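Record CCHC-type domain-containing protein, 168 aa.
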Amino acid sequence: MALSPDADMAIVKVSDIPMRNTEFLQSSLDTLFRRFGYILDIELHNTTHGDLFTGKATVVLDRSKPHDSGITDWSPLCRKLPWVTGTRNLLCSYEGMADFCSYCHEPGHARNACPAKTKRVECWNCSEVGHVAAKCPRPAIDHTHKKSRFATPSPPQDVTAVNRSPPA
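=>
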């Protein structure tokens, strides 16, 4: 089947796919991606020798105007897709996708401003959750009474060089 020159192609790289048999994975990915465009190809990625599934796949979609009756427009592509069993999310990447956080995989913020990440951070200064010691609202704890693990270097001593001439 030849594609028209104005076809709207999308190559979607999918990861975090569970280990299942090939037929189940093919049919599940077909069901999952059917709402995003005409599926031209689903390629499951195996290891170099082809004996182990890597949990990744590539789905090639034609997102041109739908000509099926009942479909008015394709659903927009997204970063996270719920797997058919509902137990996990698949992670998708494609050209033109919005920036997303590499920690929680949600769009709209970067990793350093991730609200999910700050929920798990514990301050070393006050032991509260939600901030780091550098941004702690409490004054830093005074550690001057503690002895250093490393010996303080002694000041350098004046050493005078003695010039000895070789015996004659």
